[in-house]
Amino acid sequence: MTQQLAFDLPHRTARGREDFFVSSTNAQALAALDAWRTWPGSKMVLTGPPAAGKTHLAHVWAAASGAQVHAASTLDHADIPTLATQPAVVIEDCETLGSDPIAQTALFHLHNMLAATGAALLMTAATAPRDWGFTLPDLASRVQAAPVTRLDPPDDALLSAVLVKLFADRQITVTPALIAYVLPRMDRSFAAARALVAALDTAALARGTGVTRALAATVLDNP
């Protein structure tokens, strides 16, 4: 057989602070989260494009603040009173709640319970709170009053570091020359970096080879 079977094996995503590469595009957001004890109303909204590093930065903050991390989609069946006893909470992908009045009500109660105790609340989303489409006016006014910090699209330094990290998450070591080759030839987004690394990993496994420049050229020419 000229190709091997490629299995979709799990890989470890590194989300520690030491794995978070700081550049001009995310330094302001990192500083804002580091100053969480001084947040107005003890709340903050973190926005940025898909795969921009919001989840990674949220986990960095959770480790520092003792926060529990929850997807917004789980709020409709979450134990809100118990969750509100935590010293801090992260709710991810809040923009997905616009069509879920039950989850919106849960977030409203969680917000008020945390505010009553002074516990911190970090909400992440791809867009600003005014665009979340909340149908619960009291909740909309509360989240729109929160300060917002944003992760900007990546510069070359950050995108290069993210590519190296994504390969390392899959236990793949690549050369600087490979990164320099793919960087100007790929779409300029974290989502594209994630997709490219996955495609190269799959192709390398199927061929029984390493991730080489020749393989990268083939994958980039056949998206």
Structure characterization notes:
The protein is of the alpha/beta class. The protein has helices at residues 27-34, 54-65, 80-83, 101-117, 137-144, 156-169, 176-182, 190-207, 213-221; strands at 43-47, 68-71, 88-92, 120-125, 148-150. The chain folds into two domains: 26-150, P-loop containing nucleotide triphosphate hydrolases (Rossmann fold), CATH 3.40.50; 156-221, Helicase, Ruva Protein, domain 3, CATH 1.10.8. A five-stranded parallel beta sheet has the order 2-3-4-1-5, sandwiched between helices. α3 (80-83) links the parallel β2 and β3 (88-92). The longest helix has 18 residues, at 190-207. The relative contact order is 0.17.
Rg, rounded, reads: 20 Å
Q: Please give the count of helices.
A: 9
What sequence of helices (H) and strands (E) makes up the elements?
A: HEHEHEHEHEHHHH
Please give the alpha-carbon distance between the first and last residues. 24 Å
Structural class: alpha/beta
